């Protein structure tokens, strides 16, 4: 009988991390939008003991400092060792199988809203939606530098009244460092990259830049000098998701950030997102999120 994934909500995540927080309060920062942990090995051991699959609701960025972990990630088994960067995106299903006694992993979990807010809706390439998960090996020097960035972020979060701008800048410093390392690895494999994958990456980049104003596939097809039909076929073949759904996802992410973190009215947000009137925006948002923009703001 197949196991059903348990949704790893913030409340459940906080519950699993509670023993770590009590024992090492300066090694962990917990909040719903953003959590940074110096070592999540205790959490993984609890999940192994429970024999449950966990489905993530947020983004996870981590670095294995020592030891080994073996886990099924989106149904594929991986064995990951020290000096490995890992990222997991919302919807990822994780089943830890084994954690060595010396295993330590430093990382952070953040909501989609926090990510888009910090990145100002221009996501680093490794989080552009092409992959649900990924991992790469890095050098000891690269690990030390990434560790320093994580430590700065954790220290800033643990201070009272730290500027949100500083926190966002440190989040992006971590993400840009990851992005640089993942892109370097990708460049090694560029000779094997198909033309269609290249078109997909260009499309995602354009969507991240222009989706607030440009909702139609025709705009992106024109930018890429392709017909709408051909571009749509490429995007569906490469990602398994329609081009229109990628555009809609980006619009929804931008709307969620503005609803949660700005004082703009729903009418003003609909205008900023280039909807012809608030009614269309309301219908669009409810179709994708199951609630009205105002209901989402009040949650």
UniProtKB/TrEMBL annotation:
Coiled coil: none annotated. The keyword Transcription applies. Keywords: DNA-binding, Transcription, Transcription regulation. Transmembrane segments: none annotated. SUPFAM superfamilies: Homeodomain-like. It comes from the Bacteria. InterPro entries: Homeodomain-like_sf (IPR009057), HTH_AraC (IPR018060), Tscrpt_reg_AraC-type_HTH (IPR020449). Residues 201-299 form the HTH araC/xylS-type domain. This is AraC family transcriptional regulator. It comes from Prevotella illustrans. The lineage of its organism: Bacteria, Pseudomonadati, Bacteroidota, Bacteroidia, Bacteroidales.
């Amino acid at each position: 009988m197949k196991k059903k994934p348990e949704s790893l909500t913030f409340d459940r995540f906080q519950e699993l991390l509670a023993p770590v927080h009590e024992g090492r309060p300066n090694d962990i920062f917990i909040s719903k939008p953003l959590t940074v942990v110096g070592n999540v090995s205790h959490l993984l051991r609890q999940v192994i003991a429970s024999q449950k699959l966990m489905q993530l609701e947020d983004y996870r960025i981590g670095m294995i400092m020592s030891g080994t972990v073996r886990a099924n990630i989106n149904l594929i088994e991986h064995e990951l060792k020290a000096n490995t960067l890992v990222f997991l995106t919302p919807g990822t299903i994780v089943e830890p199988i084994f954690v060595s006694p010396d295993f330590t992993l430093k990382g952070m979990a953040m909501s989609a809203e926090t990510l888009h807010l910090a990145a100002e809706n221009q996501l680093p390439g490794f989080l552009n939606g092409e992959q649900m998960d990924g991992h790469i090996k890095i050098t000891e020097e690269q690990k030390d530098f990434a560790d320093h960035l994580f430590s700065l972020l954790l220290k800033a979060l643990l201070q009272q009244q730290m500027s949100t701008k500083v926190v966002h800048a440190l989040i992006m410093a971590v993400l840009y460092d990851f992005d640089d390392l993942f892109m370097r690895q990708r460049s090694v494999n560029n000779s094997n990259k198909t033309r269609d994958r290249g078109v997909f990456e260009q499309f995602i980049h354009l969507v991240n830049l222009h989706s607030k104003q440009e909702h139609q596939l025709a705009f992106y097809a024109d930018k890429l000098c392709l017909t709408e039909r051909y571009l749509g076929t490429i995007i569906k073949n490469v990602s398994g998701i329609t081009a229109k759904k990628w555009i809609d996802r980006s619009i929804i992410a931008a709307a969620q950030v503005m609803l949660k973190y700005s004082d703009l009215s729903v009418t003003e947000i609909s205008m900023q997102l280039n909807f012809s009137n608030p009614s269309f925006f309301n219908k669009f948002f409810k179709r994708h999120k199951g609630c009205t923009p105002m209901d989402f703001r009040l949650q």
